[in-house]
Amino acid sequence: MENFNYYRPASVDDAVKAAKAKPDAKYMSGGMTLIPTMKQGLASPSDIIDLGALKNSGIAVGATVVIKAGTTHAEVASSADVKKAIPALAALAGGIGDPHVRHKGTIGGSVANNDPAADYPSACLGLGATIHTNARKIKAEDFFTGMFSTALEDGEVITAIEFPIPKKAGYAKFPNPASRYAMVGVFAADTAEGPRVAVTGAGAGVFRASALESALGKGFAAGSLTGAAVPAKGLNSDLHASAEYRAHLITVMAKRAVDAAK
Q: Given Cys at both, which of 9, 51, 76, 113 links 14, Cβ 3.0 to 4.6 Å?
């Protein structure tokens, strides 16, 4: 790990100013991704801007569920309000990593990093969430742009994520036994606009499965997915699973997600 400068700004404005002054700087929230990648030599920022001092955590439930970016996975998982409004979101958060990761990692950090096997992006896309930043509001459809890539501009900071409350929703994943990242994870939601199905872990980034959404349009039940499938072409293929196996898992996990929906 190379030397770097460390900043701990007290406000979002100070954080943005620091980032714009240092083009090679990186924001750090919980540090659950940045620190390991730095240790492995995969990242070497000149400056680290620690957002931990912003104290930007908390959950508000009304017509929607608004979760501030600094809220940890453990806080989302244990929130009685989230469990009541969107049980699937609390369950998803409770299955991220291990206890250490859940008590240090934050929802804003996970969404900003956009790991192709992370859990939260599937909830954002599956529920039609809106990502709030210091500068604007971005629909999930427009936010996730590719592997570790988002619509965030240089220096832009996520401040909160707003989730519409669905009629019901469920999440199911087939985790890598070592990392607990999703080899395939599926978030299925019955929303006011119709069924939404978002897949993580299977491709270069989170995506919606239109074939499964169409099948669920006939009835939001696991049985509706019988015979429905996602093409293997373009899916990940590695030592853990072939593209064909991941395609099979998507339908299996989708059925489990719908069965688990509350």
A: 9
